[in-house]
Amino acid sequence: MDAFYASVELLRYPQLQGLPVVIGGRRRRDDDALLQDHAGLPLAEIPVADFPLLKDYTGRGVITTATYAARQFGVGSAMGLMKAAKLCPQAILLPVDFDEYRKYSRRFKEVITEIAPVMEDRGVDEVYIDFTDVPGGQRDGGRSLARLIQKSIFDATGLTCSIGVAPNKLIAKMASEFNKPKGISVVLPDDLQALIWPLPCRKINGVGPKTDEKLQAHGIQTIGELAAREPGWLIEHFGRSYGAWLHEAAWGRDERPVVTESEPVSLSRETTFERDLHAVRDKAELGAIFTSLCERVAADLQRKGYEGRTIGIKLRYDDFKSVTRDLTLEHYTADAKTLRQAAGLCLKRVDLSRRLRLLGVRVGSLRRQGTEDVAPQQQFAPASASLSAMDSGADTLPLF
DNA sequence: TCTGGGGTCCTTTTCCTT
DNA sequence: TCTGAAGGAAAAGGACCC
Hints:
DNA-binding; Alpha-Beta Plaits; single chain; 4 domains; 5-stranded antiparallel sheet; alpha+beta; DNA polymerase, domain 1
């Protein structure tokens, strides 16, 4: 099976590439007005001069993406804005505009499915495509079809993209990074040693900073060095499942199909406060945020037509340590008050003496709304909590 | 001056019941 | 009544990705 992996550089405005531009940060008051002024303008034509400089930004937030000109200064995705401002104070700071990105995301995916219908959605700016059955898909090793897709996306959106073509998703994803920002790379099975093995392990989709650090501690830097290790050794050090997977990945083996449809597993909303808050001192403010998160999750559920029965909270303390608590109800719900009540019970099980920087509300065990109310299979008496039963006690005042 | 928000998947721990 | 094993479900945490 041959797979395309197409990575679309949705956030990297082509016309801005010569300028140091950083996108990210928390939404500020002026941002909505500025974005409103430019509503309807193609991303690339937004007059950047209207936006502030990175050095004038105060507050929390990270970089979502940056132009290549900005990256020259060492700034990049996920970096704190205050740190980035030290490295590149003259960069222009654009606010994130997810509504706009979603529009472009839909458009470029429509363009692709018209050409190659077997497409897996991997987020706002990336997809996998199985072009095995696309007419002409095999011509020139897939380059013809890749070029057609690139051109069609550019014509429809003005955005450029990189495409990797390979026998499976794992290699296609790596190949798509060979020729950024708008290249096409074809990797054949025989290219494994020459093109893949010299790369650092971190380039494998699924090897993150933790695993990479551990691999390096064992003297493994490149994918080739990883491939040279015995599967048994990898399993011993990285676990049965992950160790075996590492070995397969290093040898370029990946059997995962391109998945065109999937159901959501959970749905959540979370927010980082502008300043750390305390459960007692900032009780009113926290309470309002908490309720609003529950209402937003409920609205999301209803809008998308789902309901769930595992309600959870997440909080992050001022030292950046996170904890989660959750609670499974007997019945599915998409109701804000019910969520709020269950989440409130979860809150009682965490340490609230320390200052908080983030609060989140999550609903899991989703099913489509309107599904017949068949109780989840339960061999024994339900271990899950009954809201009404817990509610009967005196200790039920919401904490916030 | 640190470090967003929305997800998925996996492993380990805990709890419950027989 | 206590004890312990076994196994499932739920809870908690962590790694990773876009």
